Amino acid sequence: MRAQLNADYVAALQARHGGQPPVGTPAASPEETVDRTPGTDIYRAAKETASVWLQDNFRDIMAHPQANETAVQRAIAQAVTRVRLGPEQTRRLRQELEADVLGAGPLQVYLDDPAVTEIMVYGRAVWVEKKGRIEAVLPLESERQAFQVAESLAQKVGQRLQRAKALLNLTWRDGSRINLVHPSASAGKTAITIRKRDQSQSLALPDLVAMGSVSADIAQFLVHVVRGRLNVLIAGSAGSGKTTFLRGLAEASFTDPTERVIVLEDTEELRLTHPHTISLVAVDAGSERDGGVKITVRDLLLNSFRMRPDRLV
To answer: How far apart are CA 27 and CA 29, in angstroms?
Structure first.
């Protein structure tokens, strides 16, 4: 297999040189005008060669990449030396391999972009949300790649995307929320939706007042309501800032350090700084890491009654 991939890599190089062996075979020449950008036959063959070399030589590390990221990065650094690319494309290849093995593959670039708040994939098509506006970006290579990305995302958090479990909700290591839909439940195309963790959750209630999200009078009124132990319901459409506002209100209202605060969530997001906070998070069935046990928010609520809560969020 490896020999065939290397042969394909050389053949791609020869095709770019009119069927002749590439000039300067031992190393890439600065004068070469070969198109080495991602997506070309040469680049794809080089990436495949490096990927197979990684699997052949570092199988144990590749099986559990999150266990030792430093070792993975060292292995990838060796892998990229097995192919002949220019300095810029070698750097890009290394980044892509690290994204494939440790991150979200071709979607990692959008996870790393602080301006992007949401990533949406349907088949090959990819859209991102920036500053409230949705825009189409570079599509994936194929529907197969979309499914491979979805499978990889699920596997990295201990779950499997399959026909029997066609709908998955995951939490990424950075707190981003991921929804995956198997092609069998989505007209033959893989659907991926990633809502990145909202960095604005660090905003305090006075910050929200200063931004005009809520008036000073209403903010003060709601703080008195919470401190008076009345019930409060916060509702709104997706992405409207419910979590950000709830966190700001809770931080401003829970000022007694002796109170025991229990937070119930389907995805860990609030992360309150109150010193006596217990965070309980629901578990979706099918997670190999959790033994396939499902724990609902209702289960958490019933259990919280036995945990002596002063506050329930």
So the answer is: 6
Residue 54 clears pLDDT 90, i.e. is over it: no
Summarize pLDDT for 172-231 with one digit per residue, the tens: 888 888 999 999 999 999 999 999 877 655 788 999 999 898 999 999 999 999 999 999
Q: If 0-12 CB within 10 Å is exposed, 13-18 middle and 19+ buried, where does residue 20 land?
A: exposed
Beta bridge partners of 168: 180
Phi, psi of 32 (to 5 degrees): -65, 140
Domains in the chain: ranges and CATH? 2-102 (no CATH), 108-195 (3.30.450.90), 199-249 (no CATH), 254-313 (no CATH)
What lies within 8 Å, CB to CB, of 73 at 6+ separation is 98
Cα–Cα distance list, 14 to 19, 21, 23, 52 (Å): 5, 5, 9, 21
Mean pLDDT of 68-84: 81
Structure tokens at 107: 């979607």
Whether the full predicted model's pTM is greater than 0.70, yes or no, is: no
- Other residues' Cβ atoms within 10 Å of the Cβ of residue 25: 11
- Cα–Cα distance measured from residue 233 to residue 211, given in angstroms and rounded to the nearest whole number: 22
